[in-house]
Task: structure prediction
Amino acid sequence: MLAEDKQKIINISKLILKSLFSISVSIALISLPKLAQVIKLFETDKKYRNKFNREIYRLKKYGYIKTYKKGGEIVIDITKKGIKLVKKYNLEDLELKKEPRWDKNWRMVLFDIPENKKSARASLRRKLEQLGFLRYQKSVFIYPYSCRDEINFISNYFGVENFINYIIVKRINNDKKFKKHFDL
Result:
């Protein structure tokens, strides 16, 4: 199988799991209009319908979803293992949006994560750097735009939400290097 085909299958898995995570397929169809197009494609094209069915089978085989009949209809539910995978996908896909205008406030993420959560601390640092945060000190990162929801998600994902503080700062001495770094 070509790498491009594998990526398409992974994207199909993500789409299926993320949709199931959205409470129900009907709500997902309303909130994710692209999903309706994908499902329509699977209904009309046998090749894609077969891929879709294989992917449903694979997700079920690995315990990410479960299927059962209810009222003559087949119901697909996401499992706890599937929810964990969706959260991982969401973490991988997470991006911070740059606002059109900077509000001249700095966002600082400070943490003091205990030694017994050393790997979570390292993963948090890597993720913050990947998202574009600048390290201010070893456990202090800075970013110019609002990102509270994303920080809450990341800290919850790594299980360190009790050790993280999100602070909005009006002024930082000698902030020229930070402004230069963020092109402000």
About this structure: The longest strand covers residues 65-70. Residues 3-21 form the longest helix (19 residues). Strands lie at 65-70, 73-78, 106-111, 134-137, 140-143, 164-169.
